[in-house]
Amino acid sequence: MTLQAWSEVADPVAGEGVSATDYGIPVLLLLDRLHALEDQVFYIPLNGATPLVTGDKQYWRVPAKFDSGTLVAVAACCKVGSTSGAVTLTVNNGATSMLSTNITLDQNETDTLTAAVPAVIDGAQDDLATGDLIELGCTAAGASVTYCAIELTIRPSA
Predict the structure, then answer these.
(1) What pTM value is reported for the model?
(2) Is 112 exposed, middle or buried (0-12, 13-18, 19+ CB in 10 A)?
(3) In the structure, what pLDDT confidence band is assigned to residue 34 with cuts at 50, 70 and 90?
(4) Which residues is 154 bridged to in the sheet?
(5) Whole-angstrom Cα distance, residue 98 to residue 124?
(6) Band of pLDDT at residue 112, cut at 50, 70 and 90
(7) pLDDT-derived band at 7, boundaries 50, 70, 90
(8) Which whole-number Å values give the CA distances from 71 to 40, 92, 106, in the listed order?
(9) Which residues lie closer than 8 Å to 22 by C-beta, 6 or more apart?
(10) Could you tell me how far CA 42 lies from the centroid of its own chain?
(11) Which domains does the chain have, with CATH numbers?
């Protein structure tokens, strides 16, 4: 039986991060999975049985647990999809958009999983602080959309 030879790698230094060159891809993938276990998902409804209209808004206050946290994913869904035109949704921190590409629910679709153009989080605007008031809004309502909601996935700071 042949034993696997292992090379020794120095311990990571605080503040310097972990690179694929120094620690290998499997270590980085494991770290991503560990961080994802800390993620928390918030589901914020914009409307109920009354059809969605342009200008509908909802607000979410960032709790202390997520001070220095990061918005890592967004999604949206509805019970009844638009019968005419796409739905466009925004996520703003104050007056600043957190998305470089807004959330879209395509006509006749009820989830963003199948969006022709997926939402993109702006990496320069994804940081959160305690007390930030996140505004979730509708800028294009389509027609007959009910029970529309936005899902935010937040990662606490390390």
Answers:
(1) 0.76
(2) buried
(3) low
(4) 40, 71
(5) 8
(6) very high
(7) very low
(8) 10, 11, 23
(9) 9, 10, 12
(10) 10
(11) 38-155 (2.60.120.340)
